[in-house]
Amino acid sequence: MEDREILIKFGQRVREIRKEKRLSQEELSFKADLHRTYIGMIERAEKNITLINIEKIAHALNVEIKELFNDKL
């Protein structure tokens, strides 16, 4: 798997769940205590996210961490 491929798929999954929950990037960033531009960079696969921030996003989306990693990853 290409290095960026996992970043792309993870970002797509975050965006998908965020939209299902009807949250803006700004609302998600507030709930996760992360900067709004950082959320956008994750969704566009421009950032290699840390485990700590994965946990923050999962909590903010009210999902288990494993839900951010679907079988396509």
Account of the protein in words:
By secondary structure, the protein is an all-alpha fold. It is 62% helix and 0% strand. It has helices spanning 3-20, 25-32, 36-43, 51-61. Helix 2 packs across helix 3 (36-43) and helix 2 crosses helix 4. It is globular and about 30 Å long. The termini are close together. The model has no long low-confidence stretch (mean pLDDT 93).
Summarize the structure.
The protein is mainly alpha-helical. 62% of the residues lie in helices and 0% in strands.
What oligomeric arrangement do these chains adopt?
Answer: single chain
Strand content: under 5%
How many helices does DSSP assign? 4
User: Kindly state the mean pLDDT as a whole number?
Assistant: 93
Beginning-to-end CA distance, first to last residue? 10 Å
Low-confidence stretches: none
Q: Estimate the helix proportion, in percent.
A: 55-70%
The geometry reads as globular
Q: Could you spell the SSE succession in H and E letters?
A: HHHH
Number of strands: 0
Question: Pairing-aware structural class of the strands and helices?
Answer: mainly alpha
Radius of gyration: 11 Å
Q: Describe the largest sheet.
A: none
Topology:
Elements (H helix, E strand, L loop, with lengths): L2 H18 L4 H8 L3 H8 L7 H11 L12
Protein traits:
single chain; 73 residues; 4 helices; 62% helix
